Amino acid sequence: MEEYGHHVRFKELGTKLGIEPKAMTPENKTPLSIFGFPLRSWTGFCVIKLLADLGEILQVEDLIQCSFHPLRNLARMTMPEERFHAQFGKDFCMDLCSTETGRQGVQDAIDRYFPILPAFFGKSKSQNNEIFRKWGIKQRKNEEMREDYLVQARKVVEGLDLQLPTL
Ligand SMILES: [Fe+2]
Ligand SMILES: [Fe+2]
Question: How far is the centre of ligand 2, averaged over its atoms, from the C-alpha of 86 (Å)?
């Protein structure tokens, strides 16, 4: 519900600014959303909290320094919840890893979910990102954030004595 709340919060700001989501037509690509991927198990949920929320933290950390204060304030409000989600993911994955079957389940979910996550940082050499950085809305290039994410995700996964799949 908190994640859903994040979507609502950020969309409300867009609406106030007069920005409406693009209609979903075959010409418009569907926005990438973690809700668009099937979630079948508790283990899958914990792994999403472990790895997708790590990505969310990087995104929100970037926005906390945003030059547009309404967006910066939303990011500040959201950050404690993202930290809680990521810690929740770590704690419950660690619990699951205490049995061999649980460990295999967590590794299997990592293998399934991890490959979809780097795309959430957006295209490399993105023109939108260049404009956002010029305006001070974003601080880092998409590819820099993605690079950082890959390093941190590896650390988290290897910390559980598991492996990050090769992309
Ligand atoms: Fe979120
Ligand atoms: Fe989250």
Answer: 7
